[in-house]
Amino acid sequence: MNIVVCGAGEIGSHAVETLARQAHRITLVDVDGERLRSLGDNFDIGTIEGNAARGDVLARAGAADADLVLAATDLDEINLLAAAVAKALGAARTVARVHQTEFYQQRGIDYRRHLGIDLLICPEYAAAQAIARRIRTPGAVAIETFARGRIEMQELLASEGGSAIGRRLADVRMPDGSRLALIRRRREALVPEAKSVVVAGDSITLVANADVFDDARRRFVDDKAPRKRIVLMGGAPIAVWLCSFLRGRSYAIRLFEQNRVRAEELAEQLSWVTVINSDPTDRSVFEDEDLAQADAFVSLLDSDEANIISAVFAKTRGVPDVLTVVHKAKYLDMVYDLGVDAAFSTRRTAVEEIESFIDASPLRLMGMLADGTAQVVRVRVPERSPAVDRSLRELALSPDWVVAAIEHGDAMTVPGASDVVHAGDNVLLIGRSGSEKTVETVFGIHR
Q: What CATH number did the domain enclosing 197 receive?
């Protein structure tokens, strides 16, 4: 692919490193000549010094003939303008990295659609998603949140007290937009059927539209269990995203922010969170707030070094699950040697999202479930697929596979049996590992 990357900062440089290794043809644009020379010396790429928001600069970079233009400078406004101008010049697809919530959440105006940009990515949002998944189900593999939070998928442990426990699924009324996708009993992964029965102790994979997920979850999990205590350090935007993802999920959240003005803003914005204007790594504060009894501690400061020190402090004082955000690649592996349980990189999650976006393969492995006995795959439905214009109940996927979600244009939802597959749809499926041939046959995929 012919790719133009605008911005040689953390996200842009990491994208260049990753995409150049995949033999893509890269042209990098930045106002900083020294950054360009540094990356140009290490990778076989073209470089253009200049303002990426200017049409003449983008034209010199080859945006008109580009398969992809990635705008990843440090300024949201430059990224939005660069991506829009590149699209106007003729770029096949454009991606803009944004930081501000107002641009990403599409409140009042859909900037992506209005400016003709194909994809907006927010690294802080993606990293917050990953942290929330880790907190919700520690140790679980391939628990995904899709479509900007509109659809969620979790692995859960079925417990006594759930209204669906011990009943045939055919007799359980599930909320519209929800689906039980997998049952794991002992070492066996089972794709549910109408006659299937979930018993306490089963590990289940539940998929649902975000607005009904909690309702569907209560069918299988007793919500009377004690709330998990989560401590967040730092009131950056990523902390706001994380609080939003954990809202209403049986979590008691305390957020520590040392700047008083920012703490007051957060207290007003996050009504379900206890915001404390203090430093949790102050020994007296740590003891007075009884933070050693927390179930998880997450450091979300702007400084990698401060994040790591804070996380180690919490770990050495007894918090069982300690997580941190780091931006510099050199720290990602090192933190585990210091006892930190998990580290998350905003730039890595951003580049992974870009890689997924540009992956044109008809069948893509998204992740593994149930210790590798099951998997999540994404299918791009070919134009001449035998599945086109057929309802899900007509597709011979059972007993190995179940459709978890369908993306059609800008809409993504958990489908019902009568929903129809269209050419160009992205279909997410969950099924037994080793049975991919069934998916290939049903959707007419040739690899």
A: 3.30.70.1450
What are the mean pLDDT values of the chain's consecutive 10-residue runs (447 residues total)?
Answer: 95 91 93 94 95 97 97 96 97 94 79 93 89 74 54 85 93 94 88 93 90 90 82 95 84 96 97 97 96 97 95 97 88 89 89 84 84 88 95 94 90 91 94 94 90
- pLDDT for position 146: 55
One domain, residues 175 and 246: no
d(CA 149, CA 210): 6
Structure tokens at 369: 């479930």
How close are the terminal C-alpha atoms of the chain, in Å?
19
188 and 271 inside one domain: no
Do residue 245 and residue 324 come from a single domain? Answer: yes
The pLDDT score that the predictor gives to residue 145 is 52
Residue 262 in tokens: 């920012």
Place of tokens 């580009």: 66
Whether 350 contacts 327, CB under 8 Å: no
The enclosing H or E element of 243 equals helix 237-246
Per the structure, the count of domains in the chain is: 4
**What pLDDT score does 140 carry?**
46
Do the Cβ atoms of 172 and 192 come closer than 8 Å? no
Question: CA torsion sign, 9 to 14 to 17 to 22?
Answer: negative
Domain identity same for 325 and 433: no
Contact 83, 114 (CB under 8 A): no
Answer yes or no: do 7 and 113 share one domain.
yes
> Read out DSSP for 369-418?
EGGGTEEEEEEE--TT-TTTT-BGGGSTTTTTEEEEEEEETTEEE---TT
User: Which tokens go with 14?
Assistant: 């990491």
User: What span, in angstroms and rounded, lies between the C-alpha atoms of 83 and 63?
Assistant: 10
pLDDT of residue 143: 44
Q: Are residues 401 and 430 in the same domain?
A: yes
